[in-house]
Amino acid sequence: MSGGYGDEIIKSPFVANRQDTILQRSRAPVLIQSTTEAPLEKKTTSFVVDFLMGEVFAAVSKTAAAPIERVKLLIQNQDEMIKFGRLSDPYKGIADCFTRTIKDEGVLSLWRGNTANVIRYFPTQALNFAFKDYFKRMFNFDKERDGYWKWFGENLASGGAAGASSLLFVYSLDYARTRLANDAKAAQKGGERQFNGLLDVYRKTIKSDGIPGLYRGFTISCVGIVVYRGFYFGIYDSLKPVVLVGNLQDSFFASFFLGWGITIGAGLASYPIDTVRRRMMMTSGEAVKYKGSLDAFSQIMKKEGTKSLFKGAAANILRVVAGAGVLAGYDKLQLIVFGKKYGSDGGS
């Protein structure tokens, strides 16, 4: 929220740095010569190429990480699937989930729901850029001028507002992705799937629950964005002046691993919220639903215990590792093919 909240929960620092660089270039002042529009055109072209290559990277990254993403969602939501007769036995872990999914549904099933996830990413990033700028201008706090806490509050408020605004437009795609990824071939239901594809998710959900069925869990998702950002920026600003000192002050690797570790930490802190919202999504179209996010949280804790809120968290961490690895390989491929990296500091 990734932007969509799924992306906000755990996002590789590589991706964040890349997007910030692209956005900064779009804002950079351009000197326009009176005799030609070439510099402006070149700047615009550079931004468009960088942005498009960033989108291509996102599609490649998400597609490469789709198998572990689906496993994460299956493990995370298995108790809802068992409850509604769509899963016979609980998964014993990541390896067991992979093995059973491939055995029962085939290798290609690991990418089930990926199309909706890739489609969701494109409008999410464009909306995030637009809304983030809008809310930043609205608050306009400076860390040095106004002090840390005002700046921190502004960061939470503007980031949360931008994320929630973007989420309003793309949440139904995140819902559809979640339902497709968790649509395992149910042994108790003759090995049939619940949905035939993306459009079928929309059709059946609207028929049974109306438009609200597509937005189940939306409110708690917005809360999750603020919680994630609060942990991320709070911990990062606290540790940066302590850890990145001396020889490590200008070290890219030290900065990356600090950001990476904090990203995982913030993701784990907000992971129970992600579990609650996705468990709520799973009840659309079913006879029994949670009354709200607090009811969902209460029932899960009472019937399944705290551990259930963190099911799939290990797979989610692996997803971050996979994303970072794909990005490193993708940058190397661009250097080989194009002679430079697009959408990063290497681009022009």
Properties at a glance:
single chain, 348 residues, mainly alpha, Mitochondrial carrier fold, 13 helices, disordered N terminus, MCP, MCP_dom_sf, MCP_transmembrane, antiport, transmembrane
Entry summary:
Keywords: Antiport, Membrane, Mitochondrion, Mitochondrion inner membrane, Repeat, Transmembrane, Transmembrane helix, Transport. This protein is an all-alpha fold and 348 residues long.
User: How many domains make up the coordinates?
Assistant: 1
CATH superfamily: Mitochondrial carrier domain
CATH class: Mainly Alpha
Binned, the helix content reads over 70%
Secondary structure: number of strands: 0
Distance between the termini: 29 Å
- CATH topology value: Mitochondrial carrier fold
Radius of gyration: 21 Å
In oligomeric terms, what are we looking at?
single chain
CATH architecture annotation: Alpha/alpha barrel
Residue ranges: pLDDT <50 for 5 or more in a row?
1-6, 8-35, 343-348
**Structural class of the helices, strands and pairings?**
mainly alpha
Largest sheet: none
